[in-house]
Amino acid sequence: MHDHVRTPDGRLLRVEISGDPRGRPVFLLHGMPGSRVGPRPRPMFLYQCGTRLISYDRPGYGGSDRKPGRRVVDVAQDVAAVADALGLDRFAVAGRSGGAPHALACAALMPERVTRAAALVGLAPRDAEGLDWFAGMAPSNVNEFKTAFTDPERFVARLIPRSAAIRSDPAWLLEELRRELTDDDRHIVSDNTIRSMLLRNYLEALRHSPYGWIDDALALTGDWGFDPADIRVPVMLWHGAKDVFSPASHSSWLAARIPRATAVLEPTGAHFAALRALPKVFRWLLADTPD
């Protein structure tokens, strides 16, 4: 078991492996803010479907060294480093929320290694032609992303105290989001198991530093470093129609451009409904149908 992997440029990445040790490998890329201990399918499910789940802290989060100025595309080198350390030639990749664009980057940059990719409740590139990027987005996210894009220094100054507040009390973030959650999302995050998992996730994400969160937001609103239209492996784009944190129009835009995309829209779901969808998504990722 590798709990730390060193990248070619000398950084350490904190890694966690769960599920069936002999199962088919799936990387699960966490949300924003998030960490390797973030929400995932239950252990029994992972064993039943023969899945070896690999998660790691993106740079600056949890136990992983920061990479200042990183772009979304840089995730491919880190995932490759972890896969190499584990002796994995081929694997599937899934990303939820802030992790979704990073999963697409892996699919674009490593077509010879990524079997299938899934992007749940993700965003489109900030410069997506023909997309009203902020349409349908909650005011808090509009404010956060606009500030990250137009005034990065101000964004950093604002996020540092927010991160400190969450580090002191991780429930603070869920309470801050509550007023913008749909009834369905409130029901999901009120489940004791999911709530405990989310609180542990946020606490670990910001345990040492706010810069994983800061660098994520700057990367997502900056140049991703790749074109989703170049992805040639099968991709599932899953979205809840009522999502106000990353509107479903973003997945629709991506689905129109990724050649082998399967778009799934859950009519009554919102952002956190992706947690319920993970088992079905994993079954698709591991399907034996020819690609």
Report the order of strands and helices: EEEHEHEHEHHHHHHEHEH
Note the overall shape.
Answer: globular
* Tally of DSSP helical segments: 11
Calculate the mean pLDDT score and round it.
95
Query: Which strand order does the major sheet show?
Result: 1-2-4-3-5-6-7-8
Which spans have pLDDT < 50 for at least 5 consecutive residues? none
Approximately what portion of the residues adopt beta-strand conformation? 15-25%
C-alpha termini separation: 31 Å
Q: How many DSSP E strands?
A: 8
Please tell me how large the radius of gyration is.
17 Å
Main sheet overview: 8 strands, mixed
Q: Helix coverage percent of residues? A: 40-55%
Q: Which secondary-structure class do the elements indicate?
A: alpha/beta
